[in-house]
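Good day; I would like, with your permission, to put a structural problem before you. What I wish to show you is a protein chain and, alongside it, a tokenised description of its three-dimensional fold. Thank you for your consideration; the sequence and its tokens are set out here:
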Amino acid sequence: MGEFEFRHYLSNHHCKTEKTHRNVSVPIDGPNGHRLFRLSEETGIAFLIHHEPEDQLIPPLEKMLKTYPKAKVIWAHFGQVRNPELSKSFGPRLVRHLLDAYPNLYFDLATGRPNQIYACNNLRGYGVIWAQGKKKQIAKLKPAYKAILSNYSTRFVVGFDYGGGRVPMQNFLFNVVRNIRAIMDGLPKEAKHNIDYRNAWMLLTGKPWD
């Protein structure tokens, strides 16, 4: 069904152009959230949510996942934390809890590259999955996140996040694929196959890859 915005900070190009219309805040447990989760549960069709991982927004998300256990929910931009002060609880422990508690929750891997800067607050390295080198992030996963992708490989999908304000498709995909390859580096073969295409196939068709 596409990506639905519940809590969305301004994107980089919106901060640079001072356009504030994408500073979105819609309660995920409000009327529209219930309509969307109910529709997914009734039809079996998956959907993505853009939902900044703020501490105060985790309980309402858990409430909805529990209320609609057959809804197929993909939380976009895994490990993207653009406001650390409001997202102190996000980390491997929380991710494991969510994946253990809610089998209807998935994540996509459209996340920031190592050392990428969020223009709205000049935060460097907002992709928290990346390992830290001597002076900056490097293109390797932190061990805790590598373990999560290995152990929960049936719960992640590749995401490209191509949309308005992006560079031409060819250049955009080159950078995204390079980022995905860095995320996949060193994962077990089975996990790579699951994340690369099997999980997406299951979410799209309701059938396992054969």
Notes: The chain has a mean pLDDT of 93. The CA atoms of residues 147 and 187 lie 9 Å apart. The first strand starts at residue 3 and ends at 8.
